[in-house]
Amino acid sequence: MASFAQQAPAGDTPLTVFPHPDGQRVSVSGQINVISQWHGTFDSPYSGPNSLPAPEEHATSRLLTLSVKARVTRRTDVAVDIETAGGRGLGDALGLAGFTNLDVVRNPTLGSKPYLARLVVHQTLPGGLEISGGKLSTADYFDRNGAGSDSHLQFTNWTVDNSGAYDYAADTRGYTWGVVAQYRRPKWTLRAAEMLMPTVANGLDLDWNIGRAGGENVELEWRPTPFGDRDTTVRGLFFANRANMGDYREAVARFETGVGPRPIIEDTREQGRVKYGLGLNVEQRLTHDARAFLRTGFNDPHRESFAYTEVNDTLLTGADVEGDGWHRGHDKVGLAFVTNGISADHQKYLALGGLGFLLGDGNLHYGRERITEAYYTALVWRGVFGSVDVQHVTNPGYNRDRGPVTVAGLRLHVDL
Fold first, then answer.
1. What distance in Å separates the CA atoms of residue 363 and residue 399, rounded to the nearest whole number?
2. Which of 9-23, 97-111, 121-135 has the lowest mean pLDDT?
3. Torsion angle of C-alpha atoms 137, 140, 145, 148, degrees rounded to 10
4. In angstroms, rounded to a whole number, what is the distance separating the alpha carbons of residues 92 and 51?
5. Under a CB-based contact definition with an 8 Å cutoff, are residues 81 and 174 in contact?
6. Is the full-model pTM beyond 0.85?
7. Digit-coded pLDDT (tens) for 353-398
8. Cα(81)–Cα(290) distance, integer angstroms
9. Please, where are the H alpha helices in 234-343?
């Protein structure tokens, strides 16, 4: 998820390469994010079409963003982002539910041709109501977390920066078209959205017939003050996706009656099926420079994982600390632990050789996928940040027969 460049306070170290004075009607900015990751050889008695490769491997991704924002009227803003995504991820982003690099496009055949990422019209109305519409990322608005939502300066794992159980509406690049309404009050915010769903799981094309397919999202954000000035934020999320979805139990049943060489989820798809889910997201300020966060959630155990990743339930906890204590105020260190799981139907589907859009070892000795991630991000020069990142994954792809695997990474981020 892209971070948006902000100008540092007067007299402080600039956080962008070029100045961006406040009050401009039109502003132009950009970002460069390069992530290089490596893993050594790990145990793997067998593998399948969608397995993370067991031999030593390295891969580098790059994401470039050009942003233009315009204030049309006192209450109306327009934002446009053009992106190009290049390079690749480890194993072409296959074999892990909690994949290690959120910048990686989930379809490596798309190439690096520039594309429209966002085209958002934002309208502020009297009484605390805001409307945003256009092309956007659902995760720009829902399940946000100050300590764990930015793959450019914080964590990079898919299921740390977002809830793995939030199968939010998106194409394979992570974007969709939709409308978001937010009603803001001093202690709480209610937001709701309608988004387009892809025509097929992990697909690039969106279904524009909102009567038969769509993603409904509702989130209540509550900001209590149990610890005085140490901010607390609690977000409760509900989503329901309608699409041409398959069913794991039906796919297994077809295979067990002799239909097909393996369970095939695509053969059970029906238009209008619903996949629902719930999430809880908590953020707590601990001290002036430290905060903790927690995410948990689950989704429908039978319906096909469709738009984000193959997770049916997740639990995440983590924390970050700013560098004031060692006189590096713009540096940050973070640590997170996440455990992801899939339903019994999903497990059986993979164990019998079924393939999802990310997973499929050809067999499965099930165990929860457990991930530990740690990073250190340092401000190198105005707008230029460098990071080191380490992730340890136990039971990659929920398979106790494979791994564990440790992934080391370097990241360069530039806010222009």
1. 8
2. 9-23
3. 50
4. 10
5. no
6. yes
7. 999 999 999 999 999 999 999 999 999 999 999 999 999 999 999 9
8. 32
9. 248-256
The pLDDT mean for the chain works out to 94
Within a domain: 43: no
Coil, helix or strand at residue 386:
strand
Instruction: Establish if 299 belongs to a structural domain.
Output: yes
What do you get for the CA distance between the two ends of the chain, in Å?
17
- What mean pLDDT comes out for the span 199-208? 94
Task: List all residues 6 or more positions away from 192 whose beta carbon is below 8 Å from its beta carbon.
Answer: 180, 181, 216, 217, 218, 219
Residues 6 or more apart in contact with residue 211 via CB below 8 angstroms: none
DSSP 35-52: EEEEE-----S---TTPP
Cα–Cα distance measured from residue 89 to residue 102, given in angstroms and rounded to the nearest whole number: 9
Domain count, the chain: 1
Of 255, 243, 244, give the one whose Cα is nearest residue 354.
255
Torsion on CA atoms 176, 102, 58, 94, rounded to nearest 10: -60
- Cα(64)–Cα(132) distance, integer angstroms: 24
Q: In Å, what is the CA distance from 223 to each residue of 62, 126, 186, 332, 371?
A: 36, 22, 8, 24, 29
* CATH code of residue 155: 2.40.160.10
Our measurement of the distance from residue 268's CA atom to the centroid of its chain's CA atoms, rounded to an integer in Å, reads 27
d(CA 113, CA 137): 19
User: Which residue shows structure tokens 């077809």?
Assistant: 254
Asked if residues 292 and 317 have their Cβ atoms less than 8 Å apart, the reply is yes
C-alpha angle 180-154-183 in degrees, rounded to nearest 5: 20
In order of 163, 181, 195, 284, 381, the CA distances from 340 in angstroms are: 10, 31, 25, 22, 37
Range of the domain at 220: 121-415
- By C-alpha distance, which of 67, 70, 69 is closest to 81? 67
Residue 101 within any structural domain of the chain: no
Q: Does 340 fall in a domain?
A: yes
- For the chain, what's the residue count? 416
